[in-house]
Amino acid sequence: MTTHVTVIGLGAMGSTMAETFLKAGHQVTVWNRTPGKAGALVALGAHEASSPAEAGELLVISQLDYQAMYDSLGDVDLRGKVLVNLSSDAPSVLREASDWVAARGGVLVTGGIMVPPPGIGRPGAYTFYSGPAEVVTRHTETLKAISDVTYVGADPGLAMVFYQSQLFMFWSGLTAYMYASALAQSAGVAPSQLLPFAQETFGGIAGEGPMGFLKYLTAEFEERSYPGEANSLHMQAVGMGHVVHAFEEAGIDATLPVALKRLFERADAEGRGAEGLGTVIESIKKP
Ligand SMILES: NC(=O)c1ccc[n+]([C@@H]2O[C@H](COP(=O)([O-])OP(=O)(O)OC[C@H]3O[C@@H](n4cnc5c(N)ncnc54)[C@H](OP(=O)(O)O)[C@@H]3O)[C@@H](O)[C@H]2O)c1
């Protein structure tokens, strides 16, 4: 079914989304704050609006943050419009934005898209959506052009809770790999020598085997019980101190290892050193 989609924001993400909607056969209107970014899309059949007021009923927004939506649509009549905002921001900002759109007669669907531009419209791409379920369902067929639709709940902040959780794991996991590679390189070990062990570690953590800590910890989080007989947090806090020592003596940055050491030591000092590593979550919940 052909739908009219208006894409607001023609950065790396928005322009790829507009192109993907066009290729899926939709009628596409585009608008960007700074003119001059729509040429290639117009050549593919998009209509370039001179103002966001020309938007149709369905708007897909991809901008730097939610402030950009206020700046762009502050003067636009939103009655009857569905705004699907795929920009990044904090959950509370999304909740306020939902009220802001509703006060102007529109409906906000919030989304966190989990792929970079080359992944848009490709198999495996997915987006966390939150907001009114019936509105998401009504537009699912159209939205599926850019990615799978993963609906996570009515609270408009939820899309970003899932998105930020995923991004945090992505960035901190990869930064840990950068620290590990820098440590290895400081001793003359080539990054390619470390790679198979990094693959073993990341794969094992996510897997079903004896290193399948994601699964073990999830069960512990749900039970709020952290058995530590096999490997106590205290032992791991001391071990984290050894990691910090290794970074410091190598003469490389130790910011991330020091942050982990402090966190482990705080959980230990709070009296839970005999429990397992999972007990650290209790310290995270109470800063
Ligand atoms: N790139 C990725 O890999 C990726 C992946 C997932 C999610 N995201 C999220 O998707 C969103 C867009 O990312 P991007 O990579 O496309 O960013 P980008 O290339 O930097 O584009 C940013 C867009 O926001 C617009 N914008 C910024 N401030 C504005 C304002 N005050 N008023 C109106 N328009 C404004 C820009 O317009 P001008 O052209 O006028 O500056 C541009 O269209 C971000 O929230 C990002 O976190 C990105």
From TrEMBL:
Keyword Oxidoreductase (UniProt): yes
The NADPH-dependent reductive aminase-like C-terminal domain, residue ranges: 155-286
Signal peptide (from-to): none
GO cellular component terms, A-Z: chromatin
Keywords assigned: Oxidoreductase
GO biological process: transcription elongation-coupled chromatin remodeling
Domain of life: Bacteria
GO molecular function, one term: DNA binding
Record-annotated 6-phosphogluconate dehydrogenase NADP-binding domain positions: 5-153
Family: Belongs to the HIBADH-related family.
Name of the protein in question: 3-hydroxyisobutyrate dehydrogenase-like beta-hydroxyacid dehydrogenase
Originating species: Nonomuraea dietziae
Lineage of producing organism: Bacteria, Bacillati, Actinomycetota, Actinomycetes, Streptosporangiales
